[in-house]
DNA sequence: CGCAAATCAATTGTGCACAACTCAATAGCG
DNA sequence: CGCTATTGAGTTGTGCACAATTGATTTGCG
């Protein structure tokens, strides 16, 4: 694997291209997820919250936010909509009255099975090999960590 | 470089991780850009539009949308804000009255110089090597193309 | 030519992201 | 113990993303 020289001009262009590709890829994924999740009545961010709850059980809003890198300004209304849809239930923590625990309802648990085929469909739609996906995941994780330092 | 076997469970998890990493990385970039662009008075999507105009000169809304993968529902209000900020000017195309040409004002042209240090700062903030950035760009481009096929 | 289909921009409505703020509850220091 | 600082959730306001629709203009078929 040769490394072509990186001119100043290419470096500047590379930044634009990486940032733009990231932005575009994120929205492209969103579009495909929108299709795949339509029949479940979930948006992609709502699906991410459901994944957390399916995997980890009842969790406080704060903890969900840490896992998904989202703050209360985003989660509060989103969780309100999930509650209105009958998928989750909110309850104040008895230990700490500031904290609100999010718990799946029966309907929320039940949705899990219908969501199972979604990831495999997405995986196929990316057109990447498993190795490439691993590389992508790794690079994205490192970028996010580095950017979040500043 | 060995290829560990991919279990069914890992495949499912890999999809979640890639999608989530993409989502998170995109927002992490947005946050850093927000900082870097604050003194220019631009948001990241507005900056992308300015990049297109700086590079290609006056272009119709349609063409900008194709380059940035954005539709008129997003661009119309965004361009209105750029116009209100005195950075661009809108004019109906004489050749085709349906089309609206976006043209930089003097202030819009002038902003270019102040924006020059931004990409280098971003590049450094990613913490990746040039080769890794090239790999990332390539993978993201392929994913977006594949996803946009469906 | 005349009219139906396509095209382009804009608008409307919903939802996400995030900064800035409020308010209640808790932790922790003197 | 009392008071201050911090924490957790929610609210408000701005802006982006996108589906669906509207309205004006152009294209192109018959």
Q: Would you give an account of this structure?
A:
Two copies of one chain form a homodimer. Chain A has 150 residues and is mostly helical. Chain A folds into two domains: 19-115, Winged helix-like DNA-binding domain superfamily/Winged helix DNA-binding domain (Arc Repressor Mutant, subunit A); 117-150. Chain A contains seven helices and three strands. Chain A has a three-stranded antiparallel beta sheet. The longest helix of chain A has 31 residues, at 8-38. The interface between A and B is large, with 57 and 57 residues. Chain A binds a DNA duplex (30 and 30 nucleotides) through residues 27, 30-31, 34, 43-46, 60-62, 70-78, 80-81, 96-100. Chains A, B: It holds the Pfam family Staph_reg_Sar_Rot. Chains A, B: It is found in: Cytoplasm.
Q: What is the compact description of this entry?
A:
The first copy, chain A, has 150 residues and is mostly helical.
Q: Rg of chain A, please?
A: 19 Å
- Give the helix/strand class of chain A: mainly alpha
What is the count of distinct domains of chain A?
A: 2
For the record, the CATH class of the largest domain in chain A is: Mainly Alpha
Distance between the termini of chain A: 32 Å
Spatial strand sequence of the major β-sheet of chain A: 1-3-2
Greatest interface: A-B, 57 and 57 residues
According to CATH, the fold-level topology of the largest domain in chain A is Arc Repressor Mutant, subunit A
Main pleated-sheet profile of chain A: 3 strands, antiparallel
């Amino acid at each position: 694997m040769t490394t072509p020289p990186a001119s100043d001009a290419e470096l500047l262009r590379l930044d634009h291209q990486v940032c733009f590709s990231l932005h575009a890829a994120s929205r492209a994924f969103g579009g495909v997820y929108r299709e795949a999740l339509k029949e479940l009545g979930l948006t992609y961010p709502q699906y991410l919250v459901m994944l957390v709850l399916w995997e980890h059980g009842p969790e406080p809003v704060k903890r969900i936010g840490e896992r998904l890198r989202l703050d209360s300004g985003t989660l509060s209304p989103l969780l309100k909509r999930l509650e209105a849809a009958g998928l989750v239930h909110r309850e104040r923590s008895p230990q700490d009255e500031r904290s609100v625990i999010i718990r799946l309802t029966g309907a929320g648990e039940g949705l899990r099975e219908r969501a199972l085929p979604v990831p495999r469909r997405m995986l196929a739609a990316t057109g990447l090999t498993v190795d490439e996906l691993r590389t992508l995941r790794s690079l994205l994780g490192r970028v996010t960590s580095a950017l979040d330092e500043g």
